[in-house]
Design a protein that fits this description.
- Helices cover 86% and strands 0% of the residues.
- It is built from ten helices and no strands.
- The chain is mostly helical.
- The longest helix is centred in the last third of the chain and has 55 residues.
- Helix 1 packs parallel to helix 9 and helix 4 packs parallel to helix 9.
Length: 358
């Protein structure tokens, strides 16, 4: 009889542990399928279900992404050479005419700068909007998997709240950029061009206000997201921990003989789910970096080159043209911030899912 009882208990224990290791399987194929073609090309060989080295993977993504920016660098250098040629030519013509046609030369130079840079601005705007859309699309693949893994590890309340918050803020960012910030960038550049053509500062306050709206909108959205995620992780995590502790105590006391075994098996299940949550989180973070890094580098190259062009033109160009180049660089910086913010939201969300503990 004792052998029979021991055999039954042993079978229960082994089956519980087997259930713990098999039940945490989550379909992670969607994480690969949701990547854009460009992101797939630079993703390292890591699996969503296997713990990987985060920093080594990000380093590999960075080197591959940097190799895809050669064409952007060449086009940026051509644009900078053209802009420097326009500003230098205008300065020489005004100097040779002894200021006789100063207003005409200033307006013509401003129009020339705008004509030269408009194509690049449109390309970078499309790139920024496309990046936010890709991040939103991948969020729809990543967040359900992260939420499922977190819920299976015992963080039911936290996973629900984090998933809802991430979905809300990513969609809010997408709508904010497409409906408000992108038109604001074009308006900012139009006002800067008019300001340079008129060689007057009467529109500077309006231009600065538009720039203030763009920067503050992104900052406020990011601050609200951080506050929500921080509060949710702490409050929901504490509630989940209390619920799990109470459940395990009830199971151990209410079920005779095997209550402790089931309780231990549940701990194994939660530990297995936590490992899966971490591995999915690492894969998701690398995938987010792969999605937004190439566009970020391309826009960043244009931003840095425009800053350098504005600095060089300061030695030979007309003051209004120098200011216009600085404003163009600032507008490119706004687009860079949009790309960075979209990726940062999803990275922060992935960290919160990985760090929340029930």
């Amino acid at each position: 009889m004792r052998r029979l009882i021991f055999g039954i208990l042993l079978a229960l224990f082994l089956s519980a542990n087997a259930f713990a290791t098999e039940s945490v399987g989550i379909d992670t194929d969607a994480l690969d399928d949701g990547l854009s073609e460009e992101a797939e090309e630079i993703m390292p060989e890591i699996s969503p279900s296997v713990q990987g080295d985060l920093w080594e993977s990000i380093k590999a993504v960075f080197f591959k992404a940097f190799g895809k920016t050669g064409e952007s660098l060449k086009s940026g250098l051509r644009l900078c050479a053209m802009l420097l040629g326009i500003t230098t030519l205008c300065a020489i013509v005004e100097l040779s005419s002894v200021g006789k046609y100063a207003g005409v030369i200033t307006a013509a130079g401003a129009l020339g700068i705008c004509a030269a840079i408009v194509g690049t601005v449109q390309t970078m705007v499309s790139l920024a909007v496309g990046t936010v859309q890709d991040i939103a699309a991948y969020s729809a693949c990543l967040m359900p998997v992260m939420a499922s893994a977190a819920a299976m590890s015992g963080c039911l309340n936290a996973s629900t709240a984090l998933y809802a918050g991430t979905t809300l803020f990513v969609e809010l960012l997408l709508q904010l950029i497409s409906k408000l910030l992108i038109p604001a960038v074009f308006l900012y550049l139009a006002i800067a061009a008019a300001e340079a053509a008129l060689a007057s500062d009467m529109l500077s306050e309006l231009r600065e206000f538009i720039g203030w709206v763009i920067s503050k909108s992104l900052r406020i959205l990011l601050y609200l997201f951080l506050a929500y995620m921080s509060a949710t992780s702490v409050i929901s995590g504490a509630a989940d921990a209390a619920a799990i502790k109470a459940t395990k105590a009830a199971v151990s006391s209410m079920i005779p003989v095997v209550g402790g075994i089931i309780s231990d098996a549940s701990e194994t299940l939660l530990a297995s789910a936590s490992i899966l949550k971490s591995s999915v989180g690492v894969f998701g973070m690398v995938a987010v970096v792969a999605t937004c890094l190439v566009p970020f580098l391309r826009v960043g190259i244009q931003y840095l080159l425009l800053k350098i062009t504005a600095a060089i033109s300061g030695t030979v160009g007309l003051p209004s043209h120098i200011k216009l180049l600085k404003h163009c660089a600032t507008a490119m910086g706004y687009l860079l911030a949009m790309c960075g913010t979209s990726g940062l939201l999803l990275l922060i969300s992935s960290v919160c899912f990985m760090k929340v503990v029930a």
